[in-house]
Amino acid sequence: MRIKALLALTVIAGSLSACATATRLDAAGDVHDLLIAIRDNDRAAFEAHVDRQALKYQIESRLMDEARQRGGQSNGVMALAALAAGPLADVAGEALIRPETFHAAASYYGYTPDRPIPGRVAIASALRPVGDGRVCAAKKDGPCMLTFTQEGSTWRLSSFDPQAANLHLKR
To answer: What is the per-residue DSSP string for 48-111?
Structure first.
């Protein structure tokens, strides 16, 4: 009986591992395309592989968090921040969500203009599942710099860690 249970657990674990590998390999093709778009400053290809709305929402949330930290529980400060966060996120999004901004992140991973972009298998090894069907790009045990979400048949950049990627808003 124990052998059957152990065998069943082994099969389930193997299936889950294969699924995670297939997901990472699938996502790696679109991550590869995004890296090439960043390297080549190809705005059309870049736009096809980023979720601009998700990234702007992330910027807006970050602005609200900063206002909360600086303003404490002041209702006036939070009301003003809520009014300003959307338009500020739109402006910041237009300034930040473009290929040139992500050159630092690409360089961090070793994808510099003088080196070829690795293939899908190499990129897949740098991706790890983070739940909800998303994957993130990270160096070994490092932080998740870029997170990708599948929309239809395309994996799109849906969030980024600005500190890890050296993408700071100037204060």
So the answer is: HTB-HHHHHHHHHHHHHHHHHHHHTT-HHHHHHHHHHHHHHHHHHHHHHSSGGGGHHHHHHTT-
CA distance 33 to 28: 9
Q: Is residue 72 part of a domain?
A: yes
Burial class (CB in 10 A: 0-12, 13-18, 19+), 115: exposed
* Same domain flag for 116 and 37: yes
All residue ranges of the chain with pLDDT < 70 are 1-21, 71-86, 88-90, 105, 108-110, 162-171
Residues 45 and 111 in one domain: yes
On whether both 92 and 150 belong to a single domain, the answer is no
Domain span including residue 82: 52-96
